[in-house]
Structures are given as structure tokens and as C-alpha cells.
Design a protein that fits this description.
Low-confidence stretches: none
Structural class: alpha+beta
Radius of gyration: 27 Å
Number of helices: 9
Order of helices and strands: EEEEEEEHHHHHEEEEEEEEHHHEEH
Helix content: 25-40%
Largest sheet: 5 strands, mixed
Distance between the termini: 90 Å
Number of strands: 17
Strand order of the largest sheet: 11-10-9-8-16
């Protein structure tokens, strides 16, 4: 509960430490909330962030100890460990599964995602979702999924062809029913699927932001029913247009037939 959150005192300021949301906020002014993601990560030393004090009109650099020091009980509860288990560990060692990290970096194991019973390798370094058992296609480029990115959920939501293992093609101008040979799927953003590969591709440290992004090696795509995709309005619109299009085409054909042979 909010009232049970530990308080960190720094000089004349007090901050509530919210491990669950990875943030701290000033007790006297909750509007001053600071995400750990936006702080300077000092490794085992903790974090630092700039705090603006409205009463004095001055900014201060606040030094924050590691979360395992500030709230060991909260960290143990959040990451399903005992307090004894996390003693002497860094935030990184608690927040990132070290066994998975070893598999990903030392053994080179790529993350996988299952899309409609087909397994894909998520390889951000080469910008590809590669089908595990289909060598007839390169798969799906993450760059091609940019058009299907949903900011609110940090996911890609797109039509998928389970036969070709590629992005499905929809005829938006003429679609009048749910596609029978396509599925609509939702998958995590590339940085969530393969954060290590993403860092390598961009020339950043391999473990950059892993504490906040997380590390998994197995994912499952969400299959979204077509009726929940918002396509119904488009189908209705196209159905209403169809009789008009037929009438226009019939009129054009009639006009062509009435024209005599060319001299």
C-alpha cells in the first residue's frame, strides 16, 4: 500500500520509493515523480537524478541508493525471491534473470515467439523475425512492422499470413468480409522481444536498459479476433460502396456499347 512505501531522505527532501512502478516521488509534492528509467544509472552505486525545488527555485542532483538497499522487502516480493537471496546482489542481478542472460549472451540463444503454432526467431541485430522451420522466406522485417506499431501498448498489431509466414496483404479498398486466410496478431516491440540484439544493432552495451525492459527468451503472439480489430466499419463502408461501383461500371459499359465503330 501507498502508506507502507519506504521513505528516502536526502538533505531536506523526502521521497517515497515505489519499487512496483520503478519510481520515486517527493512526499511534499507528488507531482515531482521520477522514473528510474530516466535517471542516471550508476550501477552498484545506485542512481542520480535532477530534482527541482519549487520553494527555492533551485535544482539539485539527488543521489539514490540501489533499490535493493532502499526496499529489500519490496524487491524480494516483486521478483519472487527471499530477502536473504537478494542480500549482496545488485539491482541488475535481481531484476534481470541471470540464467537467461547467460543463455542469450554467452550461448547466443535467440529469443523465440510463437505465432499461430509457428515458431519465429527474434533477431533484432539483423532486423528479422525468422521462421524456425520455413527456409522459403526470410520472414518479417521489424522495419516493415513500423507501420503497425501501437504506441499505447508498445506492440505491433498486423495481419499475418500463416501459410507464407509473412505480413498479410489486405485490399482495404475492396474488403467486404473478414479475411479467411489471414489472422490478426499482436506481438511485443522489437526492443522487448530482443533487447540484447537491439543494443548490438545500435552499438550500445549489450545489457543497456535490461533492468527496465526485462529479458525473456520465449513469447507467444496474441491472436486478435477480426471483430475486435476495428475493421467492421471499413467492411460496412465498402459494402455500401459496392452497389454504387457496380452502377457506375454498368453505365460506363453501356456508354461504350452505344458508341459506334471507329471510322
Amino acid at each position: 500500500m501507498e502508506t507502507n512505501l519506504p521513505i528516502y531522505k536526502w538533505e531536506n527532501f523526502e521521497f517515497l520509493v515505489d519499487v512496483e512502478n520503478n519510481s520515486v516521488r517527493e512526499t511534499s509534492n507528488p507531482r515531482n515523480t521520477y522514473s528510474m528509467f530516466q535517471m542516471n544509472d550508476l550501477g552498484k552505486e545506485g542512481y542520480s537524478f535532477e530534482h527541482y525545488d519549487e520553494s527555492t527555485g533551485k535544482s539539485f542532483m539527488v543521489d539514490l541508493p540501489p533499490l535493493v538497499t532502499l526496499d529489500p522487502n519490496g524487491m524480494a516480493l516483486k521478483y519472487n525471491k527471499s530477502v536473504e537471496e537478494i542480500q549482496g546482489s545488485s539491482d541488475f542481478e535481481v531484476m534481470v534473470d541471470q540464467d537467461l542472460l547467460k543463455k542469450r549472451i554467452s550461448s547466443g540463444q535467440l529469443p523465440t515467439i510463437t505465432i499461430a503454432d509457428s515458431i519465429f526467431y527474434a533477431d533484432a541485430r539483423i532486423d528479422l523475425l525468422r521462421p524456425k522451420d520455413d527456409f522459403s522466406t526470410l520472414g518479417i522485417r521489424f522495419d516493415d512492422l513500423d507501420d503497425y506499431y501501437v504506441v499505447e501498448t508498445n506492440t505491433y498489431a498486423f495481419p499475418y499470413n500463416p501459410r507464407t509466414h509473412e505480413i498479410g496483404k489486405l485490399d482495404y479498398e475492396n474488403i467486404t468480409e473478414y479475411p479467411k486466410d489471414l489472422l490478426f496478431v499482436e506481438i511485443p516491440d522489437v526492443k522487448v522481444l530482443d533487447p540484447v540484439g537491439w543494443n548490438r544493432r545500435n552499438g550500445w552495451p549489450e545489457t543497456d536498459d535490461l533492468k527496465w525492459v526485462g529479458l525473456k527468451l520465449e513469447f507467444d503472439a496474441k491472436i486478435v479476433p477480426w471483430k475486435q480489430t476495428g475493421i467492421d466499419d471499413l467492411i460496412t463502408e465498402n459494402r455500401l460502396k459496392k452497389p454504387i461501383q457496380k452502377a457506375v461500371k454498368a453505365q460506363e459499359n453501356s456508354f461504350k456499347n452505344k458508341r459506334g465503330p471507329k471510322l
